[in-house]
Amino acid sequence: MDSTAAGFYFPPVMTSLPTPIRIGIDFGTTNSVIVIARPDHTIQTILFPTPEGGKSETCRTLLALWQEEEGGRRIAQRAVGAYAIEAHMDDPAETRLIMSMKSYLAQASFRETQVFGQRLSLESLIATFLRELMTLGGLSPAQCHVTVGRPVHFVGDNADDALGETRLRAAFAQAGFADVSVMMEPEAAGWRFMQRLNHPATVLVGDFGGGTSDFSVVRFDPASPNATQPLGHAGVGLAGDQFDFRIIDHVVAPYLGRDCTFRIMGGEPLPVPIEWYHALARWHRLSLMRTPRILNEIADVARTASEPDKLKNLIELIREQRGQELYNAVSATKRALSSQATADLSFSQPGLEIATTVSRMDFERWIAPDIARLGAGIDAALSEAELEPAQIDRVFLTGGTSFVPAVRNLFTNRFGEDRVELGGEFVSVAEGLALAGA
Predict the structure, then answer these.
(1) What percent of the chain shows pLDDT beyond 90?
(2) What is the pLDDT of residues 343-387, one digit of tens each?
(3) C or N: which end of the chain has fewer Cβ atoms within 10 Å?
(4) pTM of the shown model
(5) Which of 71-75, 99-103, 404-408 has the highest mean pLDDT?
(6) Domains present along the chain, CATH in parentheses
């Protein structure tokens, strides 16, 4: 695989800016954003080149690793974002695609992984991604003082938030940043919102990422030397990815054999292992199923299954690594439902064609348990701040999930339409991080 032929582009590292450069990085589960804070307190969002020749404010939080023969030796190669996807699609068998790295930060059980026979720690993988991200944006970590965001609570069962932040700091230090500060992501979004205020206000900030939803109650006083006073925080380990899974679970999983039965030695029908379908909740979990053991297990079950072709669809999805295509299709349907009463969902692979319509009414019924958990998170943030909804002056929402009508209604029903504002879908947190660190 030739990186030039694949269309990889790395702009020259920026050296003309004053040192130190103050930046904010929103290192997200799904996307990452870099914003520069200028000395005059203006901000500049870094635009990343794309393989198609365009520019994007976001870079997918993906790292591809592979090896190339050169002079009789195997040389390590890497790419990030859309270029990582290109590299993986070019040679999936020989390319290791690392994703959702942030999801493992607070998991003590995950320390390292093997890549081409070499043990690599989670921190080193994230550091590699960050160095490549900075190069793609034309920046050098050594020149930069960075403020990085962290969720109120890291995602995962038995998540250790202190461990998560320690590893996050270590990864940024390993990447070579001159100075590293950490700030709660909803507080950072609130800093961005504060630029709109000309008088003191008590603000509830909701930051909806791919894996977590965070809420902060902050008192802002633009005229005070201490412009922000955090009053309360809460976090919920679900967000946009969980909404995607609800669509997959109700619409796609039946095509993949979730409702099938199978028999062991001619015995009574048994349900197929449900854990295979729980893995559909996250693209990175689906990719971990691409092992001979799991693929053979599914094939064995398919031999006596009530609908073997559906289980063969699951094998095809995993073996040929079509998860990216599936999640793109599902995410597009979810986004369309934010502005339409119905939306089409289309996905195909050899042997499988899905073409159906999803209604917003059904979608809102599926996500109702998740909406209830988000509501509990809002209430927890207010409780920690010892405030009632009537004492909140403004509500500021950021992140793509905040555009889902059922999510927005959580806030308008509690606080009233006139107090709720939506921010930049992807860049508000990074902008706030840059401003807070300036």
Answers:
(1) 68
(2) 999 999 999 999 999 999 999 999 999 999 999 999 999 999 999
(3) N
(4) 0.84
(5) 404-408
(6) 21-177 (3.30.420.40), 198-240+367-423 (3.30.420.40), 241-355 (no CATH)
Q: What confidence tens digit (pLDDT) does each residue in 1-45 have?
A: 444 334 444 444 444 455 689 999 999 988 999 999 998 889 999
Q: Span 222-233, mean pLDDT? A: 84
Question: What pLDDT is attached to residue 19?
Answer: 67
Instruction: Tell me the average pLDDT across 249-263.
Output: 96
Q: Omega before 20 cis (within 30°)?
A: yes
Report the C-alpha gap between 311 and 327 in whole angstroms: 19
